[in-house]
Amino acid sequence: MQVSAQKIVVLGTGGTIAGTAAQAGDNIGYTAAQVGVGELLAAVPGLEAVAGGPLVVEQVAQIDSKDMEMGVWRALALRCAECMRDPAVRGVVITHGTDTIEETAWFLHSVLHASKPVVLTCAMRPSTALVPDGPQNLLDAVAVAATAGAQGVVVVAAGTIHGAQRVQKVHPYRVDPFSSGDAGPLGWVEEGAARLVQAWPQAPGGKAAAAVASMQADASWPWVELVVSHAGASGRAVDALVREGVQGLVVACTGNGTVHHALGGALARAQAVGVRVVRSTRCAEGQLLPTAGDAFEAAPGLSPVKARVSLVLDLLH
Ligand code: SIN
Question: Residue 97 belongs to what domain range?
Answer without folding.
Answer: 3-196
